[in-house]
Here is the input.
Amino acid sequence: MGQRIPKDDAKRMCENWTGSKQPGNSKSPGKAIRSAGFEDTYETWFSVDELEKYLKYVKDNIKDNPGIRIYFGNYGKNVGPANNCCTIFLAPTRGASEEGVDAIENVNDYDTDPYNSGTGRIPPAPYDPNA
Here is the structure.
C-alpha cells in the first residue's frame, strides 16, 4: 500500500533519479538521458481536479477494487515539443482485495482508458522542500 513519505525522502529519491548529488560518472536515469543528448523532464504535474475526475471515471467503470498503476513512457518522434521526452501515464487496474493488496493480484483493466495529460517543465524543477 502507498503511504505518505517524509519530504527529505522525496528529495533524496529525486536526487537519485537525476544524479544531481552523485559524482561525475555515477549512473542514474537522469544522467543517462542527458549524456545521450536529450533535455528531458523528470516531473509531471496534474491538477487535483483532473485527477479526481479521472479517478471518478475509473471508479465508475471498475467495480472490483479499482486502482491505478503508474507507467513510465516516452512520446517518441515527430510529436512536436515533446519529441523523445519521457512521461508517465496512469493505467487503471482491478482485482485484489482491499486488505493486503499485492501488485501481483492487481491486473490492468484494458477496457478502461489510461490517462496522460500532465505537463512537465523543461528544464524541470527539482523537488527541494528547503528551496
